[in-house]
Amino acid sequence: MKILVATDKPFAKVAVDGLRGEIEAAGYELALLEKYTSKTQLLEAVKEANAIIIRSDIIDAEVLDAAKALKIVVRAGAGYDNVDLDAATAHGVCVMNTPGQNSNAVAELAFGMMVMAARNMYNGTSGTELKDKKLGIHAFGNVGHNVARIAKGFGMDIYAYDAFCPKEVIEAAGVKPVASVEELYTTCDVVSIHIPATSETKNSINRDLVGRMPKGGVLVNTARKEVINEAELITLMEERGDLKYMTDIMPSAHETFAAKFPGRYFSTPKKMGAQTAEANINAGIAAARQIVGFLKDGINKYQVNK
Ligand code: 3PG
After folding, report:
1. Do 2-101+276-297 and 104-267 fold alike per CATH?
2. What is the largest distance, in Å, between two alpha-carbon atoms of the chain?
3. Residue 295 pLDDT > 90, yes or no?
4. Which residue's CA is the closest to the ligand 1 atom numbered 9?
5. What residues pair up with 193 in beta bridges, in sequence order?
6. Centre of ligand 1 from the C-alpha of residue 239, in Å
């Protein structure tokens, strides 16, 4: 069996060594395609793969057509909007993610960006503190839970909204549930976004929602750029000189944000939330183990295209 690791944004070496150990111990062969520069390279590499481990790499119908021996794709991470699930199902390919494995890394980066915004991008002027500020956690999954845990250490007043998570779960984590997404944005000084990109959530963070934030509001996005209505956020930030946008996913309109909102906008050059040795090891090894479990014993616990 040939297991391909196809990562445009490579794992830390220690993670690759770890997942290689899992794969070789199972008697399988590892192939590595890192930092590829064209889809042609991916199409070539998948030809003989029986399993593929990816990150945000795009697996579409064309890739699946080229991967004639493919049985399983594991997205080493949480969001799987980069995989065409219907095409995978049509090709008889199982798709899994590795939920929770990189969530602390993403949560820590969200706080890195919150502190950066509160301290005026470290420009030497007097900033503010996170203590006693109201934090809104938009979706209370694995990252949201970690954000809440860290926020307690900062002494923040913590609120969350999640359309699918029971309020008892939010309360059990010591967080105040709010009844609507509008209430979350109206209430909170800082909102940290942790929703997936789906047909329902795309463009949903819009002028109406962010415009409800109190004066000096900070929007932190470590989720997906697609959930932001960029045109409306630009209009709103033009109208309200107090708002800041911190993102780990460079917007399509990055040049416009950067030019119009110096000191109020920051984007990482490449998504860095899950880019830690620990997260790479956790997610990479989980992906390798899930592949071995699936190929040897048919275990499909984290399948997302059932
Ligand atoms: C995820 O969905 O797991 C995160 O967004 C991390 O994505 P990455 O593996 O491309 O860094």
Report:
1. yes
2. 61
3. yes
4. 55
5. 138, 221
6. 32
Spatial neighbors of 288 by CB under 8 A, at least 6 apart, are 3, 18, 19, 22, 23, 53
Closest atom of ligand 1 to 56 CA is: 10
Ligand 1 atom nearest to 77, measured from its CA: 3
User: For residue 11, how many other CB atoms are within 10 A of its CB?
Assistant: 27
78 CA distance to ligand 1 middle (Å): 6
Tokens of 160: 């969350």
Mean pLDDT of 111-138: 98
From the CA of 83, how far away is ligand 1's center (Å)? 13
| Distance, C-alpha 28 to centroid of its chain | 29
Distance 221 CA to ligand 1 centre (A): 13
What is the per-residue pLDDT for 306? 84
Mention every residue, 6+ apart, whose C-beta is less than 8 A from residue 112. Answer: none
pLDDT tens for 25-45 read: 999 999 999 999 999 999 999
Domain definitions of the chain by residue range: 2-101+276-297, 104-267
CATH of the structural domain 2-101+276-297, one choice from 3.40.50.720, 3.40.190.10, 1.10.3720.10, 3.90.1530.10: 3.40.50.720
Size of the chain, expressed as the number of residues it contains: 306
Q: Which uninterrupted H or E stretch holds 246?
A: strand 244-247
Q: Which CATH class is domain 104-267?
A: alpha beta
Ligand 1 pocket, residues with Cβ under 6 angstroms: 9, 55-56, 77-79, 102, 271, 273-275
Phi, psi at residue 40, to the nearest 5°? -55, -40
Residue whose token pair is 């967080």: 175
